[in-house]
Write a structure and sequence with these properties.
Number of helices: 0
Strand content: 35-45%
Helix content: under 10%
Structural class: mainly beta
Radius of gyration: 18 Å
Length: about 325
């Protein structure tokens, strides 16, 4: 069915950008171009009547819809439920931000969800259509943990998954290599001057269903080549990783979480290390921020969310606007 038409502002200062979808709440939009169309894989926010907490218990989502657009500013089509919590054999609760990929005729939907022991793992489901429906594999990806999978396919066809999120995303609980439930947010006092917790990256197997290697750290360095520190909340990684490639360079972008910024860093390798470059987007209305970046018909766009419709941090709406760069590739900061 046809949904709301989203407006888009082409400048980087303030402008009015309308929600793309208005009949349900959507967030964490993972956008991809498949078969000449834009497909969006967002979270589906619901009012679950769960009290708000630092672990995100109030984000108690239960299914995914897939949306498509033929053009920026055109109508958005809802393809219905692509995957439901009840159809994932190993899942417990909280179907958080997904991503998608395509290889050898198959479409893959990657999703984080807590298992029956309340530990976040990352699962994968497959379909012959980018719109789904998707069928989940019977078990999570071996060796996976935490949240926010983002799968980047390089120009040579090799896939890489970037993942992780602290606080409710549980990344801090894996700091020692084993799950430690006692670590609820960051690593705690005394760690502010130590290197910040890192997102993870792993090369994908040929069939895109598993990791081809043990996940490694995505290191973000400052302008002096030193790792960003845990106390640097304006620049350190929190969640919402995304990777795109522009003019041969790899751009790793992410959310800073409790300071509500979208930032980015650059590298000559998909593994990094990445050097911090700046802020992509200043805080939106609402606590969370999560995005994706794509090229479509010669222009670059950023998909993101805010809470314009509901005014509630757990009931969000997806938006899109053009991403503008300087001649040297520097991304111009957006004021939403």
């Amino acid at each position: 069915m046809a949904l709301a038409i989203g407006g888009i502002g082409l400048e980087t200062g303030f402008c009015q950008v309308k929600p793309l979808i208005s009949d349900v709440f959507t967030a964490d939009p993972s956008a991809h171009v498949f078969n000449g169309k834009i497909y969006i894989y967002p979270s589906h926010d619901i009012e679950a009547n769960v009290p708000q907490d630092d672990e995100g218990g109030h984000f108690n989502m239960r299914d995914y819809h897939v949306y498509s657009m033929d053009a920026i500013g055109g109508k958005v089509t809802d393809h219905g439920v692509a995957l439901d919590l009840k159809d994932i054999p190993w899942a417990g609760r909280q179907l958080w931000a997904p991503d998608a990929a395509f290889k050898n005729g198959t479409y893959y939907l990657y999703f984080p969800v807590k298992d029956k022991e309340d530990v976040f793992r990352i699962g994968v489901a497959t379909s012959q259509s980018p719109a789904g429906p998707f069928k989940a594999e019977p078990k999570p990806i071996p060796g996976s943990y935490s949240i926010d999978p983002a799968v980047f396919t390089d120009t040579d066809g090799q896939g890489y998954m970037y993942f992780g999120g602290i606080w409710g995303g549980q990344l801090q609980r894996w700091h020692s290599g084993k799950y430690d439930k006692s670590l609820s947010t960051d690593l705690g006092k005394g760690h502010e001057r130590e290197p910040a917790l890192s997102a993870k990256v792993a090369k994908m197997s040929g069939d895109m269903l598993s990791f081809a290697e043990a996940p490694r750290d995505v290191q973000i360095l400052d302008e002096h080549g030193k790792p960003l520190l845990g106390g640097d909340h304006d620049r350190r990684f929190f969640e919402g990783a995304w990777l795109h490639k522009y003019n041969g360079k790899y751009y790793f972008s992410y959310s800073t979480g409790d300071t509500h910024l979208l930032c980015y860093a650059e590298s000559n390798s998909p593994y990094g290390p990445f050097t911090y470059k700046g802020v992509i987007m200043k805080p939106v209305e609402g606590w969370t921020t999560h995005h994706s970046i794509i090229e479509f018909k010669g222009k670059w766009y950023i998909f993101y969310h805010d809470t314009e419709i509901s005014g509630k941090t757990h009931l969000r709406n997806v938006k899109v606007r053009e991403l503008v760069r300087s001649a040297d590739g520097k991304i111009q900061t957006i004021t939403p």
